[in-house]
Description:
The protein has helices spanning 32-39, 133-139, 152-165, 185-196; strands spanning 6-11, 44-50, 71-74, 77-80, 106-110, 144-150, 169-178, 199-200. The chain is an alpha/beta fold and 201 residues long.
Amino acid sequence: MRPADEALIVIDVQNDFCPGGALAVPGGDEIVPGINALMAEFQAVVLTQDWHPAGHSSFASEHAGQDPYSVVEFPYGPQVLWPDHCIQGSGGADFHADLTVTRADLIIRKGFRPEIDSYSAFFENDHKTPTGLEGYLRSRGLSKLTLVGLATDFCVNFSAVDAANLGFEVEMRGNLARAIDLDGSLDVALEGMRSAGVTLS
């Protein structure tokens, strides 16, 4: 068992990000058995869940003439427009059926504000609005974080960088994460995580 100050953060292992889902990450389901095994090593486990209302502003379907995966300017900066995904209460928003959800001490839902997307487990995409995860971790004395899940180059990346910038000791397990790799986004994300002080393993 890992020391009591370590936590496992499992990012968005949901049906819509797995093969057959609305925003499928290649091989997204392959990491589930390994994540379940890793959970057994940690006293603290947190799951995150993308949780969008229907008609979320980040959906391409809400922007006439825009295709999925195009990038537009939002008030808080560039925003990828996504296929409709992880809509609150839908089967696509559910965790993968094989994920050991019962091991979670906390489930953080993000992206529920219609006007702003949220990749990071710590902040929405304005980089200011907190999810509450930082306070939870600090109140439990959890300072060393291991991140896994989907997708490496978006929600895992943003979460890892924010955690490192907040002063947590962060490791990202690449074998238990999968990427969308949108126009080279994986390489950019990996370099960004390294630069922020995230350990890539």
